[in-house]
Amino acid sequence: MAAKIHHQSKSATSGIDPALKPRLKRRSIFEYAAWLACSLLAVGVLYSVSTNPNFKWHVVARYFTHETILRGLMLTIFLTMASMALGTLLGLAIAILRSSRVKPVSIAASLYITLFRGTPVLVQLIFWFNIAALYPNLTIGIPFTNIGTAVDTNALMGPITAALVGLTLNEAAYMAEIIRGGFSSVGKGQIEAADSLGMSGAMKMRKVIIPQAMPSIIPATGNQVIGMFKETSLVSVLGVAELLQSAQLIYARTYETIPLLIVASLWYLVMTLLLSYPQSKLEQKYSRATSALPRRAKRIFHTEPEGAAR
């Protein structure tokens, strides 16, 4: 009896909530069978890939750090970072216009989002590359006056410029919806509190809405960065010498198509994994959906009210 009381008192003073203890799950025979089947399948695939001479792994190793491939990789990273930065800024402006109470402004922002989200990125890239067919010359100047200068659109809209414009405008539509969703996650009480303090619309957006919307916006933005890095392969149709186009230029000369495509795929995989790590850390830090529970419950000490009879 004394041992039982001692055990109960020890568990009561340990400070660990039983609800927070990890649950033990017994593995079934189906789980062991699934592990065995997946392991055999993985071994078979690895053996086939490593022993098949048609993959030409020595060619893959030779071109993996080739100067042309690395130059294309740097251009791919530049297009990703520039398009995401410009697209995020433009998406923020469109999201603010989309949330405006002025109906014409809100409708115009909605039409922009619908247009660029409803058409393929490849079509948009080709359209901007051939925009000179619609507007051969653009005049920059003061409206309703003769003050201005003409710009040759064909010379202005080169392959890299068209790729940057197309990717930025398309990404802005998606970022606008992500940011607008973040705005919607802010409670109405916070907005009413800002109104009661007499904050202007710009100050309310800068001091209240945007900081509280960031936990919802940042994880989704990380996914968009990874997606944008892979979408840059579409600009190869414009003749931009990014990663995929660089691989195509090499195998057009050497006729080693599969090894060069493997090189490009490996670089896309490596960069995706490198981008996924900080993105997962941001999700752990900012995501509101997964709130971390404390591992140990704090001890609670009951004290008698002051002045109580002893």
Folded structure, characterized:
By secondary structure, this protein is mostly helical. Helices cover 68% and strands 3% of the residues. The chain has helices at 2-13, 29-51, 57-63, 67-98, 103-118, 121-129, 153-156, 159-184, 188-196, 201-231, 243-254, 257-286; strands at 137-141, 148-152. It has a two-stranded antiparallel ribbon with strand order 1-2. The radius of gyration is 29 Å and the shape is flat. The model is unreliable at 1-5, 9-13 and 288-301 (pLDDT under 50).
What order do the helices and strands come in, and which of them pair?
Layout: H1 2-13, H2 29-51, H3 57-63, H4 67-98, H5 103-118, H6 121-129, E1 137-141, E2 148-152, H7 153-156, H8 159-184, H9 188-196, H10 201-231, H11 243-254, H12 257-286
Antiparallel strand pairs: 1-2
Helix pairs in contact: 3-12, 4-5, 4-8, 4-10, 4-11, 5-8, 6-8, 8-10, 10-12, 11-12
At a glance:
68% of the residues lie in helices and 3% in strands. With 310 residues, the chain is mainly α. Helix 8 crosses helix 10 and helix 10 packs antiparallel against helix 12.
Keywords summarizing the entry:
310 residues; 2 strands; two-stranded antiparallel sheet; 68% helix; 12 helices
- Helical segment count: 12
Instruction: Report the portion of residues in β strands.
Output: under 5%
Average pLDDT confidence is: 81
Shape: flat
Low-confidence stretches: 1-5, 9-13, 288-301
